[in-house]
Amino acid sequence: xxxxxxxxxxxxxxxxxxxxxxxxxxxxxxxxxxxxxxxxxxxxxxxxxxxxxxxxxxxxxxxxxxxxxxxxxxxxxxxxxxxxxxxxxxxxxxxxxxxxxxxxxxxxxxxxxxxxxxxxxxxxxxxxxxxxxxxxxxxxxxxxxxxxxxxxxxxxxxxxxxxxxxxxxxxxxxxxxxxxxxxxxxxxxxxxxxxxxxxxxxxxxxxxxxxxxxxxxxxxxxxxxxxxxxxxxxxxxxxxxxxxxxxxxxxxxxxxxxxxxxxxxxxxxxxxxxxxxxxxxxxxxxxxxxxx
Length: 292
Ligand SMILES: Nc1ncnc2c1ncn2[C@@H]1O[C@H](COP(=O)(O)OP(=O)(O)OP(=O)(O)O)[C@@H](O)[C@H]1O
Ligand SMILES: [Mg+2]
Fold this sequence. Notes:
single chain; alpha/beta; Rossmann fold; 6-stranded parallel β-sheet; 12 helices; binds adenosine-5'-triphosphate; binds magnesium ion
């Protein structure tokens, strides 16, 4: 077995797909990539739901929902409500009230209380790693959306294990340095352990996305080439996208809680093109999975 493990798909034909942006390392661009890719898919005509699974709730905020400022229920309550054994913790929260409709994409928000998820479900007897998967199946969200785009937290705990068990495809943003190579190795170990548990197939890796790359730094450029070669050996050619450089327009657009598609200036066009090609990669992957 190589340094990274290749994964089989758990595709369910004729329905929407769950895609997750994951990396246990913080600040690599999971939220930035999830948000803009969701908009890229929406602009290619797909129905998209953003699902925030990070207690930091950055994706919710980008989508215009400030859960710190409201006592509206979030994904946490929906997950708790989906567990019969936790009846005393159930509270009135209907899926269609929790989902906020957006102009381009909808959002199922998270809040700070999601950090208590692991503790809340500690004593239940059903498989704790399958709570999100079961919720997604029972909610029939995949009949309403072509893609559910999950933003994960920077951990490898129960929330991420739930995301790995629920997702059909993974997108892994990373910064090209020696630490991230080790981090990615650990990440795929966890995925491999989940597969060994036999709780169902694990997701396919759709793309690795080098982010915040500075090719003027020789060491970074060398690290990127090395990591890219290793990933391609394990996951096949084309599994690493074109790198994203450190781009002020991305920060600017996020400060305004907008995707790069909402700006016409020239500096945004290249970024739009990059997210378009990620969306195209996802659509091609989805298409070839449906055929296989
Ligand atoms: N290519 C880029 N150019 C410039 N800034 C970027 C780029 N990608 C991400 N950022 C900025 O870096 C910061 C971290 O990005 P982001 O929040 O998307 O990372 P994350 O992996 O979701 O972090 P966390 O693990 O804390 O959730 C943000 O302020 C974001 O605006
Ligand atoms: Mg984030």
